[in-house]
Amino acid sequence: MLKMSCRRNTITGYNGNLNLLVSVIVPAYNEEKNIVRKIENLLQQGYPFMEVIVVNDGSTDKTANLVQSFIEKNSLQHKIKFLSLSKREGKPLAINYGFRYCKGEIIIISDADTILGENALQRIVQHFQDGKVGGVTGKLSMINYGESFSTDLEENYRNIFDILRLGESCMDSTPIFNGALIALRRQLFSPLRSDTIADDTEIALRVREKGYKAIFDYATTVYTFTPKHFISRIKQKVRRAEGIIQSFIRHKDILFRSVYGKYGLIIFPCEFFMFLVSPFLFLLIIFLFPFVLQSRSLSTTQILFVFGTGLVILGLTLFIQKYLLKCSLNNLIKIIATFLEHQIFLIFALFSLLFRKGNVKWERTN
Fold this sequence. Notes:
By secondary structure, the chain is α/β, with parallel strands linked by helices. It is built from ten helices and eight strands.
């Protein structure tokens, strides 16, 4: 069991001393199975100063009817705004549309197929007592861990993901948010481009770019399902990688900028390397390794370059294990396996972005 701690993330509950109005945007496309449960979950959070804005992104199922019926049946017209786009526009434009109707000082974006843990809204809002904090995200927990080989892989990945996000937040800020729950100050929101793939990462980068902290709160949990089928998992992970890479490239000016402190000099360069440089080096190693074994024509320098590059990539993985996770040999094997899997996803994502026009409309995975 990994022990995670950070002084910034020691909030234990809602102490009732905040009266910030919160606007929760819930983009929804064909969410007839989840949308009512999602609204009920938000209302049960117990945060007294909240409005919910459901944005129906051109759904073709019963999503719209279910939301309207729920509002009328429970007389919640004063608390829930229901907006509907005439055709499917994609999550970025649905968020933009919902923001136009928000009155809150804090804007929260939460996916329709996720459930917030107890006191999640109260916990996340309290971070804004710190004037330096501009955005916060929560921990994503999968309800169906252990259901299949695919869900086991995701559990390994999430363990590493969480410790990295927490470490970055303790140092300064994280460049990667979880789209299931994002909170930011109203004045920091600016319309997302229609072709944005990962709205969560884009928002995290914008918050820090504007001089505020973007942090991960390990104690604030959001529950969802991860794909139980391996092919669905591949599609989801490649899609996710595409979005992060896209946003990293768009905000590459942050790289090595001392004005951003440790974020610009350490955190973002490391993530940029892992997402955009490391996959190409990994691919180069795979391509050259057979030649190293079979060819005698390669110079010593070329051979050392291939093996040296592999050692650098593996060394970063070992660094995470030794100084951040402090885990057993068994966990080290899981970390290396997860790292290698992630590199493969990144390679597919890079080529996908290079050779085809991205589709910004997310598809449901099983």
